[in-house]
Amino acid sequence: MAKQKQTTYGYSRKVLEVFRHPKNIGEIKNPDGFGLVGNPRCGDTMSMYLKISKDGEDRIEDIKIKTFGCLGAISSSSILTEMVKGKTIGDALRVTKDDVIKKLGGLPPIKVHCSVLSVDALKEAIYDYYKRKGRKIPKDLEEVHKHNLQVRESIEHMH
Ligand code: FES
Predict the structure, then answer these.
(1) Residue 156: pLDDT above 80?
(2) What atom of ligand 1 comes closest to residue 111's alpha carbon?
(3) Ligand 1, atom 1: nearest CA belongs to which residue?
């Protein structure tokens, strides 16, 4: 895990900078893929919208997020969108929570689960894209999807 450059709040300068100026916020009308995930511990939610290229390369042409969550969730999801925009789906799926944390200059250990949320939102949106296209869905995406459905149900009971 990346060594954290701490500030007084335990967050790196990069996290605070991204949180103050998050990128790719909003929605995409008629997305090619959509993912909604939640965190059962805190009830925070994240929606991710994808526009995928039609040239057969499956490139992420556009990506937007709506995050109702903490500083860690907002900064993780924002930086993830920047990391995967322009990448093929295959390359985007290789981005891990550790890559996100590293790019943020670290996260306090208690906030690591917030970075997982952003990676799961991307996987959920890609799952949705594959489903819409009638493609074979990889086993790990099926598992993430099943987990997300259970978590969403438990969050709905919280609200
Ligand atoms: S505390 Fe809820 S996602 Fe960070």
Answers:
(1) no
(2) 4
(3) 70
| C-alpha–C-alpha distance, residues 142 and 124, integer Å | 9
Is 70 in the active site?
A: no
Ligand 1 proximal residues by C-beta, below 6 Å: 39, 42, 44, 69-70, 72-73, 111, 114, 117
- The pLDDT value recorded for residue 113 is 87
Distance CA 101, CA 82 (A): 13
CATH number for the domain running over 13-158:
3.90.1010.10
pTM: 0.91
pLDDT at 3 over 60: no
Average of pLDDT values for 41-63? 94
Per domain, the residue ranges of the chain are 13-158
Q: Give residue 159's pLDDT.
A: 59
Model confidence pLDDT, tens digit, residues 73-91: 999 999 999 999 999 999 9
Please list, in sequence order, all residues whose beta carbon lies within 8 angstroms of the beta carbon of residue 133, skipping any fewer than 6 positions away.
none
Residues 6 or more apart whose CB falls under 8 angstroms from that of 32 comprise 50, 51, 52, 129, 132
Nearest of 84, 102, 81, 86 to residue 15 by alpha carbon: 102
